[in-house]
Amino acid sequence: MRIVIRHADQPHWTSWNIALTGINAKPDNPGPGCAVARCLRQAEGFRGRIIGLAYGTLDAGLYLRESCDSGHLLPYPATGAAALLERLDEILQHDPVDALLPCLDAELPNFIAVEDELKRRGIRLVLPQRAQLRRRDKDSLPALCAAAGVATPDVQCLVDERFFDHCGGDGWDYPLLVKGVFYDAHVVYSASEARQRYRQLVATWGYPVLVQKFVLGEEVNLTALGDGSGAMIGEVMMKKQALTDKGKAWAGVTIDDPDLHAAGRRLFDALKWRGPLEIEMLRDQAGTLQLIEINPRFPAWIYLAHGVGRNLPAALLALMNGVKPSQLNLALPCPGTSFIRHAQETIVALDEIATLAMSGSTACPHVLASRAA
């Protein structure tokens, strides 16, 4: 098998071939990939190519030329790291890649496992270490928060749905939050509802299922980059204004929240995080910020960061290209800048979907270029 090797004398990142994942666009729970692509397209001087990596033939980014110049299907994360590397080697025969930005939680362990192999192929990545990733898992948050001096609700791992029948006697009063190990969270108000959600999560994500004490409050989020030393780079803070049924932001506004900023700094320092990160917190009725989740990637609302002059995907590529954090040209984020998400149709020829389903790839780059001409 012939593998295209990228060499160390690569050009400036604005002309790189950038591969990214998470290019689905489900209205109630979109992946971050299309928003990351949008940030890169609008980064000053960017003239590179964007290569979409997807897990389903109906992932919208595969067909949105404003998002991706070409696209390829990957094996699902459950197939393991070896299958991922084999597929990426197939892709590299046709689509050279200078940098790769994973945008989904569940795929990160596989990318970490093949990171050294990908770097030997000349592909740049900025990934957390496996231990860092484990420390921000949902069931590990109490220990992390204790080390960082941040509040968080109690959480338990479950492998038996009978917990919900007697949990009130153990101090776990309804409502409760039932969560999948990777994605999905549901507020439940009774044992019967909790068991139903538990079974759904097991069927979708497997064991364990997490149960977390419910906190009533206002949700605020922070996203930033980490360089592995404990620094928090380019932070942008946002308050959700409208939610989907899955609790995802449909609209939000940038804020300046000193408490959220301080909590973010403590968490970045405790984790020594490398790469993008999103911190989700709730301000409870007593005014205390409580950590709900840490997502090891860019959030789906990352385009808001570009909107306030902090294009974090572009900044991450600049860091990969050797720029020091102090040299990044990041504006001070202006509070009061809002975003509103929307859904729209894209027209796709049936033969495009059939080609992707049969070959695992969209049209070759030279075909796409001739179409654009």
From TrEMBL:
Residues 142-321 form the ATP-grasp domain. The keyword ATP-binding applies. InterPro entries: ATP-grasp (IPR011761). Keywords: ATP-binding, Nucleotide-binding. The keyword Nucleotide-binding applies. PROSITE patterns: ATP_GRASP. It comes from the Bacteria. SUPFAM superfamilies: Glutathione synthetase ATP-binding domain-like. One of its GO terms (molecular function) is ATP binding. This is Biotin carboxylase. The lineage of its organism: Bacteria, Pseudomonadati, Pseudomonadota, Betaproteobacteria, Candidatus Accumulibacter.
